[in-house]
Amino acid sequence: MKKRIIRLFSAFVLAIVLTFAPISDSYAKSQLDPCAFQLINLDKYGGEEFANPESVSSQNGSLKVDLKVQYTDKETTEIAGCKVKLRSYNGKLVGPTLRVKPNDLISINLINTLPPEPKQEINMNKPHGFNTTNIHTHGLHVLSTGNSDNVLKEMPPKETDTDPDPNYNIGVKLPANHPSGTFWYHPHKHGSTALQVSSGMVGAIIVEGGGLDEIPAIKNAEDKIFVFQQITYDTKGEIDESYNGFGMDLNQSAWSLSGRQTTINGQIYPTIRIKPGEMQRWRFIHAGVRDALNLSLRPVSISKRIRTQVKLHEIAIDGIALGTIDSWSTLELEPGYRSDVLVQFPSPRNPLVQEYELVDVATPPEKSLLGVPEDEEVLAKVIVEGNPVKLNDDTNPELPGSKKFLADLLKAKQKDAPPDITRIDGRQEVLFDIQLPNQFSDEKAPKFMVNGTPFDINDPNPITLQLKKADEWVLKSAFVNHPFHIHVNPFQYTRKDPNGNDEVIWRDTLLVRQGKDEIIKSRYDSFLGKFVLHCHILDHEDQGMMKLVQIIQ
Fold it and tell me: Is residue 12 within a helix (H) or strand (E), and if so which, with residue range?
């Protein structure tokens, strides 16, 4: 009942907003149009059984996969009843999951079937080149040059309509000591990253076989992948260069106002089934563009008898094992974040079937990315039913786990994660800032900057790091909040655990709040060459909030 009241109130507020600031003329014509900007009816369009994305696994040290960059078929591809034509991998709303092991070679044959780029004058730091692409393997510790994880390389479509579609070969070699865990891939061509990612061009990468995977209870647990997407489309079910679908107005969150629904693996409000006492591993990937997710499990019934708080038991962050288990009532995911959690639900008493929902809790302005409130979203239904699974320390521990299980988690980190950084050789500083135009300026648009300058692919002053050295980094934001992401090398960060104690973790993406400096430590062990750091609000990156980095001998 409470959920319905919240959604009705949100619909009322949305109607008022759209009355005075209409997003599209078509909204006024008909709220029955499934492509209109309005709250989606989850009872009508949601509820199908949860499904992991399609999966491709490596064989004999190699994973070979074709990724065709193409428009979805508008006649067969729908989101909540709206037929969509969006840029995609292989015509799907989410790309295939790539399952590999340390020391494997990921061989991607990328076929760009999109139409030729229109002839136009290009400003590097304005969105452009929407049919030109490339691939970034987000979080992987791999080479960033050549045909590997090279985001400075462009993969354009054919030049004319009569030319054949070009093929591009990408080869990403994982080191033999690469951590096992949850990673992902997406386009990273500067100027078109936000549009292509928000079209659905993302997929999971699962590095298997070490660390946590060697713990019997985790190895035997059902593995569910949650690729959270904020797929953006206009009232025609499309995105084109004239559609301001990313909410570039810094004073509002266009996602909250649009009525669109965060999807999981391309699904609207899927149904997840689990037995009482059963432990499952849920791999969360925030593959959205600019809205925070604050995940919580909430019972649907308000009966006091089943008002059990089920926590999300976190065991890995950004693909690297924690070495312990952190039990959260609400779990923060910013764009680019990943979190591996274990879940376990109690046995229902009355009724015998118990229902929960996975909810994105409303975000207050001070904690949101843009300093404005983000509305609550109900993301998935969880049904607890069937015969209870027997609890056993070896095969199905009672969470948050026995002493033995916690000891196994610590051993997994010690074996799989990079060693702690104990020596600091230097200091780096990163400042995110947005310069707004004023009446005395000739500039018509905001200027998005790192360390005082917008992105320059020929930057004469890149951040220069030295191989085999480690630095302390100071991360700052002068205006609104920005998720910092750096390629190739993860970093260590001290956060507060659920009990308020300091906890040192590894990660590759971190929200930097305005006026609150963050301190991280990073070491550069393996790879020379150029790559980037940037804000993972991807339209900020496309508009210049990115900086060239190079590692030298």
Answer: helix 2-20
The answer to whether the beta carbons of residues 289 and 297 sit under 8 Å apart is: no
| Amino acid letter, residue 125 | N
Give the pairing of strands 338-344 and 312-317: antiparallel
407 burial via Cβ count (<10 Å: 0-12, 13-18, 19+): exposed
Q: What digits encode the pLDDT tens for the residues 308-328?
A: 689 999 999 999 999 999 999
**pLDDT tens by residue, 503-544:** 999 999 999 999 999 999 999 999 999 999 999 999 999 999
Helix (H) or strand (E) holding 429: strand 426-435
- Round to whole Å and give the CA distance between 472 and 485: 15
Contact 114/134 with Cβ under 8 angstroms? Answer: no
Residue 546 contacts by C-beta under 8 Å, 6 or more apart in sequence?
190, 450, 455, 532, 533, 534, 535
DSSP string, 112-138: E-SPPPPP----TTSS--TT-B--EEE
DSSP 56-99: EE-BTTEEEEEEEEEE--TTT-EETTEE-B-EEETTBSSPPEEE
With CA atoms as reference, report the closest residue to 103 among 207, 176, 178, 180.
176
CA separation for the pair 536, 511 (Å, rounded): 9
Pairing of strands 470-477, 518-523: antiparallel
